Amino acid sequence: MIHSxxxxxxxxxxxxxxxxxxxTLRRNYLRLPELVAQSIGLVGVSGGVGILVPAVFATAGNxxxxxxxxxxxxxxFSAWSITLFARSAASPGxxxxxxxxxxxxxxxxxxxxxxxxxxxxxAAGILQGTVNTFLVLARELGLIAAHPPLAVSxxxxxxxxxxxxxxxxxDIRLSTxxxxxxxxxxxxxxxxxxxxxxxxxxSHVDQSQIALEGVKPExxxxxxxxxxxxxxxxxxxxxxxxxxxxxxxxxxxxxIISIVGPALLFILASYALVAAFHGQHPGLDQADGxxxxxxxxxxxxxxxxxxxxGVALSFFAAFFSSINAAARIVYTFARQGLLHEATGKAHAxxxxxxxxVTLLVVLALIVGLIFTANxxxxxDSYGYLSSVATxxxxxxxxxxxxxxxxxxxxxxxxxxxxxxxxxxxxxxxAIPLVGSFYPLPSGVYAWxxxxxxxxxxxxxxxxxxxxxxxxxxxxxxxxxxxxx
Length: 484
Prior knowledge:
Layout: E1 2-5, E2 8-11, H1 19-22, H2 32-43, H3 45-60, H4 64-86, H5 95-103, H6 105-140, H7 150-170, H8 172-200, H9 207-210, H10 217-231, H11 247-276, H12 290-297, H13 301-335, H14 354-373, H15 378-411, H16 416-437, H17 448-469, H18 471-481
């Protein structure tokens, strides 16, 4: 059963009754800044500025800043549904438990499985992005050639994966504090460079961006899809519900902060970078390390190198943040009998879901090595895997948004404005979700929606099989998930 007692989240289940044998997550351990660090770390704010803003520009052009503004509004509506549940209950099951309480266990499992796909597949993609950023940094430092041998990429992939495993295995507080330090320092340097650029010119207003010069509605819609991806993972603080101090207060705050904070930086960075690269060669969408290039133009070359190091570390933090989030979903599934019981154990002294962490790192590593060994460019594989992950996030957010008013109705607290907020949230989330499937993009991206549907189908098939083969156990899980 998922409930709360004096602000402390508790997770009980039939599989969790022998706590001394299997171990559980550490209670009352993480404070608000550490919860924010988990979400912002998975978002990968500074890494997103360096890589995702140019990607959004490639589609939205002068409407890049507006695409980020629209994405922010959509996510704030979505956050209402998430924080509604987060103020009532907390568990490592997060959105899985929320959707179950709102629209029932089957949809809850689909939501939880979608979120697990998002975290796990996203981790494999972020691993590829991490390796790419470290290679860029190594080239800048003159440590490797412009086109290093394949063995270098493969070895670096293994090293990054093992380093992330060591952090996630050891301590969740170590993970979040490392992330917080990296992001704060890198964001500070990024803001200094951006403001220095804005203050360096004679005009502080870029008329072509304000007038949305050359921007068509279709471009803006596609740009919003990519901008939305820049924020995915903002909800991941919810998976730390069992480990947070005063979770019913801290987690909702962490979710909102993890949208508003990155949004301000993304909008500022997109406006400044688009303006800075007008008429430049290469353009923003072709620049390798645009923040470093801009810093050198301003005579802040040292800042540029440090920023690139921070971007690489931001990607690294996003990788183990994804592993942390995915491991806690696996942990919850296992302790409720949906996955093997071994993955529902926490380390006796570290109090981390160490078996789940190890399994997920190994899976991400195998996927990364296969892509790289087959000659797929690191950023291409990052894009493919991250796109599949985005579908998982979107579906999970939609299901929680649908479940929120149903949850309130059962409690007798439903008001017309709640229905309106939920409806607007679903409609706004539908823009990137439907846009990902129709019209289908070209090349490999045309197959990715079907890959995601196949993965969702596998999870649903397992749930149906469990319902047929072990109905008594499933009824217990359903009763547990319906507890308020």
